[in-house]
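Entry for the shared binder. Reason: the reviewer on the internal report wants the predicted structure included alongside the sequence.
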Amino acid sequence: MGPTTAQILVVANRTCPCPGLVDVIHDRVERAPAADVRIVAPALNSRLRHAFSDVDGALLQAQGRLEEVVAVLRQRGIQAAGEVGDADPFLAVADALALRPATEILVSTHPPGASNWMERGLVERLRATYGVPVTHLVSQAGLVLA
């Protein structure tokens, strides 16, 4: 990858795939001379299931969301890859960045009040930790509000 390649890391939970999120990714790719898009789908689980090490359902759901968004992006002509990440979205991003850097992180969440990620300060923590732009996208009924 050259120095002008946009390396976009997208972390999305149950908001994925959202048509608005796909539109934002498409816009980023169109503006760059070259782009590398990676999706991280955290394996979200209830606290009870996590306590009993019952993660199979969470992994399957995350894998399904990941495959669906990658397929939608490819239909739009965007080459994308991804992985299922840790249930903690901050750790999922850290793991992804340990493998390959990003020039931008897109975080897609539910609206305030419906998003555990926002309650835990995910966007602020990512901004404070990594020296790249972090864009927060709020998904609501298939629309994305930046």
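Summary line for the report: Helices lie at 19-31, 47-51, 56-75, 89-99, 116-119, 122-129.
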